[in-house]
From TrEMBL:
<feature type="transmembrane region" description="Helical">
    <location>
        <begin position="192"/>
        <end position="211"/>
    </location>
</feature>
<keyword id="KW-1133">Transmembrane helix</keyword>
<feature type="transmembrane region" description="Helical">
    <location>
        <begin position="98"/>
        <end position="117"/>
    </location>
</feature>
<dbReference type="Pfam" id="PF01758">
    <property type="entry name" value="SBF"/>
</dbReference>
<feature type="transmembrane region" description="Helical">
    <location>
        <begin position="129"/>
        <end position="151"/>
    </location>
</feature>
<feature type="transmembrane region" description="Helical">
    <location>
        <begin position="12"/>
        <end position="30"/>
    </location>
</feature>
<dbReference type="InterPro" id="IPR038770">
    <property type="entry name" value="Na+/solute_symporter_sf"/>
</dbReference>
<dbReference type="GO" id="GO:0016020">
    <property type="term" value="C:membrane"/>
</dbReference>
<feature type="transmembrane region" description="Helical">
    <location>
        <begin position="70"/>
        <end position="92"/>
    </location>
</feature>
<keyword id="KW-0472">Membrane</keyword>
<feature type="transmembrane region" description="Helical">
    <location>
        <begin position="157"/>
        <end position="180"/>
    </location>
</feature>
<keyword id="KW-0812">Transmembrane</keyword>
<dbReference type="InterPro" id="IPR002657">
    <property type="entry name" value="BilAc:Na_symport/Acr3"/>
</dbReference>
<feature type="transmembrane region" description="Helical">
    <location>
        <begin position="36"/>
        <end position="58"/>
    </location>
</feature>
<dbReference type="InterPro" id="IPR004710">
    <property type="entry name" value="Bilac:Na_transpt"/>
</dbReference>
<protein>
    <submittedName>
        <fullName>Bile acid transporter</fullName>
    </submittedName>
</protein>
<feature type="transmembrane region" description="Helical">
    <location>
        <begin position="223"/>
        <end position="243"/>
    </location>
</feature>
Amino acid sequence: MEKFSRISDKITQNIGLIIVIFSVIAYFVPDYFSWMTNYTTIFLALAMFGMGTSIDSDSFKKILKNPRDIFIGALAQFTIMPLLAWILAVGFNVNKDIALGIILVGCCPGGTASNVITHIAGGNVSMSVSMTILSTLLAPIVTPFLVYLLAGRWVEVSILAMFKSVVTVVLIPVLMGIFAKKLSPEKMEKSKSIFPLISSLAIILIISGIIGANAEKIAKSGLIVLLIVMIHNALGLLLGLGVSKLFKMDYDKQTALSIEVGMQNSGLAIQLATANFALNPLATLPGAIFSIWHNISGSIFASIRRKDVKEIAFARER
């Protein structure tokens, strides 16, 4: 089990590189991966169940103990990224499918990968996890409403249908994971290294499937989507950092909030596009590309912040 745990940690820590490798393979040999899109809901539900098994009563106590910074993070998450998405969609005058996909990404909660990146960056992991939990639990209400508000000019949005989708693939699996840990804490503890691996593999399969299924379309419009995704992600990280500095948070909390805002649950964006907007097939593309890019940019950002942490510590010792 110890060896398996090390393998799981390696895959989780290097998920960005693994996603890039599988995405490139899926692009050039799409037939081997496109079938995976039929199981997007199942894969994402597995990832969310894995997240649920990492949550316990202490997680909620941390939210209640330090609500200010965590609620600021959630508020920043659901204002900065959705508004940036809308501005970019309008500013670049993209077609309605791409616009919808960008807005779906912007309106989703924080991604679980943000917790790993925060750890690598030397940020406040406890705060990162708490923000992810809070934004995920708020998502069934907030995400459908924001998509309805911001994407309505391009497509017809059913708040109820999206609410059902988010509840089905996010809230229920997360709650099942929480209850599974509550009912069998010893078994969950023994198998705790399995669930991050399952979550990582699920996200890899979702993204590879979307890339494979849209290989031809990516060749035509992939560059403009990549550019928008890069701007969206970079501004999210920078504005998140700005908000944390505005509220005079500690350095490690600044890192956590910035990463949490900039990194989205793009797997959920893909699932929502697949389940609710079948007439807009390209709406899955921004989510897939965001999944690839935010792991790359997040790793770069983490290395910069970690270096700064060491320099600050060194300066204090002098």
